[in-house]
Specification:
Elements (H helix, E strand, L loop, with lengths): L8 E4 L4 E5 L5 E5 L7 H35 L1 E8 L1 H4 L5 H18 L4 H6 L10 E6 L2 H13 L4 E6 L4 E7 L2 E2 H4 L7 E2 L7 H4 L8
Length: about 210
Amino acid sequence: MRPSTAHRLVFVCSTRFVCTSTNKGVVRRHDVGTKTGSGASSTARVSLAKYKHRTSHIATTTHRAMSSSAAESNLVQYVVLRKDLGLSLGWPLGSICAQAAHASVAAVWEFKEHPDTVTYCDPERIDDMHKVVLEVKNETQLRALAEKLTENGVAHKLWLEQPENAATCLATRPYRKEEIAFLFKKCNLAKGVVVSGAAIAGQGQSGG
């Protein structure tokens, strides 16, 4: 019997191959490896198995890519300021900002070869930087925090303002938040304007 244009005959020609006959007289062989009583159902099973394998591979690849992207986007740099610089010592806002900038840039530069720093400063991600800016009450607390970070192997830069050699701010290199967040639990988020009324009125020169 000759198959019509819209019809295909599928039949079993051996215990290892399912052959498909088409209207063009082309015989295709599909190695299924087992004997089956229905060529059509066997072909469907082979196709379904290939489809499942392919979609499973795509899903795994996508999950890995998403996981990698999420990890990279979770990189943050912690910056910790002294609250008393403005409230008690009357430093103007510009000077306080300068301390944060000094510590942040110094930490990035000092650990520039670390893979997380390289990723954090990647030109394609440079506009997606994340920082967590915290505060402590005074220099004593800031130095104590620096010692705690050192004890836990956390790479950071404690900025010492000269010529006073006063610790004014610290910053870590970029880390994944979940790696070091627990070390900053006792620190508060730096909120509002942390400068005195006299500093706001313009006393002193912004610098640092």
